[in-house]
Amino acid sequence: MKIFPVRGGIHPDYRKDLTCEKAIVPMPMPQKLYLPLQQHIGAPADPVVGAGDLVKKGQLLARAQGAVSASTHAPTSGRIAEVALITAPHPSGLPQLTIVIEPDGKDEWAELPAPVADPFAASSQEIRERVAAAGIVGLGGATFPSAVKLNLGSQNKLETLLINGAECEPYLTCDDRVMREYSAEVIDGARIMAHALGTPKIVVGIEENKPQAIAAMTQAASAFSNITVVGVPVQYPMGSERHLTQAITGLETPAKKLTAELGVVVHNVGTARAVHHAIRYSRPLLSRVVTVSGGAITEGKNIDVPLGTLVSDLVAFCGGLKEPPRRIVNGGPMMGQPLPSLEVPVVKGTSGILALTADEVNERDTKPCIRCGGCVTICPCGLVPVEMAAFIRKDNLDGAAKLGVMDCFSCGSCSYVCPSHIPLVHFFNYAKGRLNDADRERRKLERIKMLAETRNTRVEQQAQAKKAAAAAAAAARKAAAAAASENPENKASV
Amino acid sequence: MTLAYTDKSAPFTHAPTSVQKTMTTVILALVPATLFDAWLFGWPAIFMFLITVGSCVVAEALCLQAQDKPVGETLADGSAILTGWLLAMSLPPWAPWWIGVIGSVFAIVLAKHLFGGLGQNVFNPAMVARVALLVSFPVKMTAWVTPHPLLSDKGLSFVDSLGITFGHGFNIDTMTAASALGYVKTELSRGVPVTESVQHLPDLMDMALGLHAGSFGETSAILILAGGLVLLARRIISWHTPVALMGTLFVMGTVFHLVNPARFADGTFHLMSGATFLGAFFIATDYVTSPVSKQGQIVYGIGCGLLAWIIRTFAGYPEGMAFAVLLMNALTPIIDHNCRPRAFGRTRKGEPLEVKGEK
Ligand code: SF4
Ligand code: SF4
Q: What is the domain extent for residue B313?
């Protein structure tokens, strides 16, 4: 299959060898599980249990709220200790409403609905409902509710389901392991998703630095003529939806549009496997594979982790820290979130936990920009980071917006190459936050203005209507009076 | 438990790059040519080189001190050394000590720190210094000595050399020769056609090897070219500026030579003579003063090549590279503004692309 070139990108030190040969191992059930109500993009789920309730494995704990949201289920059986504000796995370190479970050690399943007998005979609607009920979100890290994304077929004519196995972030090997060890489950999940979306074709894109995964997936897909497994160049950020779509179809997604407009929907390999579990066994999303790695970790592993497990428990399971880390990262080193501490839970979007040493992070003091142009050359979005940063430094956010800072998806490539160690992405995140706020504020004002205007026009219209009515009434009266004076009999008849 | 910091966004890994590494690589790429030229022109050239680099470093230190900026740490980035180095490469090898010192003041104080220091300067500091010196001291700045290799019978003793650099200087009439470009130009002005005057020049092979008169760093074209290729291989520079520059120079030379061989020197001659390689690989590619995008670098390179050819061919100075680069430096902001890459998913104008095959 022809692979199309993709602009820019970098070749960071991948360091995947730390964990890529480590088979997935199950995490022993910890003392407590902490399940935040918002582990996804969209509205937080609404808790349906309270402190003291006994729950079984797979039981619904909090229900999706509104159009974009995801439910959460009990990863094991036990007692709800509390529903309380607890530090979320977010750099802000702000607390979030969280359900705390004390496992009883029995790991007893709740009664699950019967699996879908033949998914390929089921309607798209039914599959989406099952996926939604299972609380599945994009496991690549985006955590967008998958059921919503499986609905794209209703508005667009779709050609291809693209299964994203690029895993371009350094260190992370969880998708690699899932593809090697559970290729059949991934392929089955992908076929079910393609059925729900109505896409005739499935393409699995895997970076060429994972030959075993490519082999395993090719093997698993060999029975199905509509599935192609392709190796894509090792080039960060190949795993970005738009860039993977471009590499595989040659099509460039227009700004502010979804790949679906080109007939392509992208789902992660872990998500495909979760869909397989949800449809074939009615199992909700209760655990996920997490890569624990980095130079400060005693022994890196790929672990099947019950959601809600504290990062500190996870790290302890890996033999603890062998030296103080400089950064603890939730996700990959290029786009992950820095964690304030180890006392935060693993959530649906946690693809990796990295404890990185100062050497690995290689942070240095910022020097003046020497205009080397490195950031311009590698930006996969064709932006000019050096100029955007200069604007943002002068607090000229509109200037930065004109240069396209809102198109930046914070892939980190520019910061990575900058010889002056300028934290470019940090500037862009700041600017995007401020511009988003301003945009929200502007829209709010516009809405208020519009409401006020509508009200004014309404009041005016009413006033005018009244006046008109009064005038009409007066005219009528006058006419009537005139008529009456002319024809007194008539008046009597009125 | 606060273990780690959350004060900064990702990425939490970084390429093994730094300003210091970049500057060091460029300097290392210049070393072979520098050693060769030191041998070729002997002790006076070595003194001139050391004085120029040394005074650039001192000037930088004083400027930093005056602005209360960290001195040692900033000096360690190597940019002042590189500026001094490039300046020394573009001076006559036997220039007296004060040429180097004044040049350093022009380069570091005027061209660099008055503009705001590293990264802020609009004009290439070494070229500003060279041009300012050329305009102020035209005789000293065009006194191209013939090679006096160390340890050969033409070589000078250490003590005699001290005299040349710090004392009485040397006899311009007996020890110098015109540089190739200068010779052709002078002959042309006397009515001798280029076709004839090039006969008297060292042949192209000697020019390539550098065994002829010229500025300290211009002579050994081959070693400069090799250094440039190292920079390309190490991805410190990209091919865009040098190829556009040399290509333009070559095409202009060739085309006009074909039209009128008596008036115009040919393309190969332009490539092999003077500061072409030094300019194309080391001067025009200066990060700070050249455009940041590849598209911009091509435009810039073509501009430099064109101007250099025009100045060499029509203007009063035989060597045009320094002027050409400075003129194009002034255009860099405009080029940057007009040569941005096309953003992903957008047209050149910045509008979102149309969805193809719109239903
Ligand atoms: S972080 Fe943004 S500006 Fe920087 S390279 Fe990535 S997309 Fe471009
Ligand atoms: S990579 Fe850094 S030093 Fe180079 S142009 Fe961009 S911001 Fe400036």
A: 20-336
